[in-house]
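Retry 2 of 3 after timeout on previous attempt. Resubmitting structure tokens to design endpoint.
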């Protein structure tokens, strides 16, 4: 398959495995890249030197392109950026911050830069900042998200109408059918998060992966909009947040309640009750844990079948 996204990243299929805190280390990223997609290391949960280790291991595990996701809401971002440049990483996907901050610096070093947005307004700002492509992420997505609640189905055609550079759709895509739908709406490629959480190579805890497989429609919700809006599974911690909302909490109350390292406790260490378990609405369509290469192959096979079906319409 060849289009603007496969050409931009020099990959076989326009499928990007999302950078995901506590889930996407070198094992997952290299497995996806080796299978023809674009694997991303999730720098958001890594100290700078840990990221360096993952980059080095990823280089040993694949000779295909891979990238690093840098959510700008975490500390040590300057150091993370320096390590990415020092280690010769060729692709960076920034998120949760201003695309102007690092785009020029990264591009001066020959790095392809993509920025994640959740609205048309920010897609245009990212384009203006000089990024090479935009990931537009809808309300369905797992993890941190926009406040506007714009769904992927509405966001992609609205961004497509105004954007000139390549467009990658994210949020609610876990199958070849979803991928085809996103591309019909105007995307050149897709970024897939939740589906790759339930992969053998994801670094998250087995108990969390199993909870994702067991999740049904309606088991996730976007919350904590006053801090950084995040979609998570409705576990004991989530219920305690809802309880807190009934008392009209201040922002400080919410920060205090969230505490430290909840996402690590939940997703990485397997505390299914008190941890923050980030996952997307599409978890209801994820029924098994399997190798990342298999996930990618299934998506491509289903995409081709769906394309034939659609051509008969
Ligand atoms: C467990 C989890 C962790 C995530 N962490 C990050 C992150 O560190 N940086 C980021 O830009 N997006 C993060 N996301 C969002 C993904 O990059 C991606 O855009 C999203 O998962 C796509 O929607 P989907 O989950 O429906 O596939 C995360 C998503 C999940 C499910």
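Retry 2 succeeded. Sequence:
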């Amino acid at each position: 398959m060849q289009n603007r996204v496969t050409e931009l990243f020099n990959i076989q299929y326009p499928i990007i495995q999302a950078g995901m805190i506590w889930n996407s280390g070198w094992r997952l990223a290299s497995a996806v890249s080796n299978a023809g997609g674009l694997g991303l290391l999730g720098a958001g949960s890594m100290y700078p030197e840990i990221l360096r280790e993952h980059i080095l291991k990823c280089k040993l595990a694949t000779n295909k392109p891979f990238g690093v996701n840098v959510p700008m809401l975490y500390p040590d971002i300057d150091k993370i950026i320096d390590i990415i440049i020092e280690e010769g990483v060729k692709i960076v996907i920034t998120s949760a911050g201003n695309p102007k901050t690092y785009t020029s610096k990264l591009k001066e070093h020959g790095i392809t830069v993509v920025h994640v947005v959740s609205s048309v307004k920010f897609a245009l700002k990212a384009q203006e900042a000089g990024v090479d492509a935009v990931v537009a992420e809808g309300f369905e997505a797992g993890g941190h998200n926009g406040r506007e609640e714009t769904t992927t189905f509405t966001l992609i055609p609205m961004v497509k109408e105004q954007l000139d550079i390549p467009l990658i759709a994210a949020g609610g895509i876990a199958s070849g059918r979803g991928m085809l739908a996103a591309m019909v709406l105007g995307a050149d490629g897709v970024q897939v998060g939740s589906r790759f959480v339930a992969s053998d190579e994801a670094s998250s805890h087995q108990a969390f992966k199993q909870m994702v497989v067991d999740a049904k429609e309606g088991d996730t919700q976007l919350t904590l909009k006053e801090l950084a809006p995040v979609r998570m599974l409705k576990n004991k911690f989530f219920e305690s947040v809802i309880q807190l909302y009934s008392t009209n909490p201040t922002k400080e109350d919410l920060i205090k309640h969230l505490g430290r390292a909840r996402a690590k406790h939940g997703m990485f260490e397997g505390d299914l009750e008190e941890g923050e378990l980030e996952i997307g609405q599409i978890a209801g369509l994820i029924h098994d844990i399997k190798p990342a290469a298999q996930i990618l192959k299934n998506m491509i096979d289903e995409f081709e079948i769906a394309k034939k079906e659609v051509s008969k319409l």
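Attempt log closed. Residues 215-281 form one domain.
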